[in-house]
Amino acid sequence: MTVLAVAFAAVGAAVLVGLFLTQELPHSWTLWVVLAGTFFALEFSSVEITDRLYISSSAMVTFTAAVAFGRQSAVLAVALMAAVAVLHPDDLRQRRWRQPAVNFGQLVLSASAGVTLFSFFLPEGAVTVGHLPRLAFGAALGATVYDWVNFQLVRFAIARMYPGRAMPSWSATLPTHIALTVLGAFGAILGAAFVLAGPMILPLMMVTFLVGHVGFATYSNLRRAHEDTIKGFVKVVEALDPYTRGHTERVAHLCRTTGEWMGLSHERLEILRWAALIHDVGKVAVPADLLFKPGPLDAAEYRRMVRHMRVVEDSLAQATFLAPMVAVAAAHHAVVEGSATDPPLESRILAVADTFDAMTSTRSYRSAVTQAEAFEHLRGRAGVLGDEVVAAFIAAVEASGEIYGSPDEESAAQVERLVRERSVRA
Asked: Distance between CA atoms of 188 and 110, rounded to whole angstroms?
């Protein structure tokens, strides 16, 4: 990571040096400080719009500044703004320097690329009302380039700093990219308004920048509220059934690992992860004699338990945002039973992960089996669970290097004896 951070910082510094040699300094440092401070504030307040992917509305300030400073200074002025906006709250809390170094190179490169394209749409002389359509169109193109380069640089850095961590594809987050393109066009219009009307337009500009940020923040808060709701359900089940504590997180992790191995889109991975977290929520309606039975459930008991769980799942499905993940969780019961007809791929993945974790976890009435035994059991049920999914699950777990269950057959047998002795004493 150190090499990557140094490389990004060096490239960003080289771009700045080149711009100092080819561009003029901003004609008004007061205006530059105001816009740079706004850019910094928006970047510092970036919000999470999907799993570990952050965004801000700073692109709007970028193209406002480009118009305000003109073709001769636009790229340098914006690159300098990007250079001072490298810190994130997490960087300060964790006292890290590598991430800001990467951010420095990433922001300088992406901002310079986008504004360089946009500069060809900037007039040689003074900005007039007649230039507005041209500026808006050019800023939309420039914002698209800025966003695309930034996205690819972030993806490149994450792939090397956090191997195995998935990032959504460009197309998977298309609505966000379209929003940034629109913000870029609005930014150019604001810049033209400033040139035409003067500093009196600054308050309106700041309000518009704030509105752009509030839009992303509202979406982020809604997403966080949804996830908090799901986590609340999980905590209720964990309090009811101690075995569930840790089980849901492990199943969610195994589902994500398998989904990534099978190339699921980011949206499908999100639904799968949330479905894994709530797949046992229905236990709140399961009678105690089934939930705490000191032994495995037979087929009839399992079907009875599922009927009770579906009462809760049907209720949760009434909430629009929960419906997709509840559907996946509900269908996985049928996959485990062997009664499913054309279930979603996500439900098959969840069924395999749930079955595997159940086998590799020690219960009050039996010990955990070894990972190899669990794999053999899954292969034996591949016709029911899905041949492709079982093969992908085993390949993904083996590739991760993670080991589940008892380390060997001798250890499993020893745990089995201890479990039986404890049961007898009880």
From this structure: 17
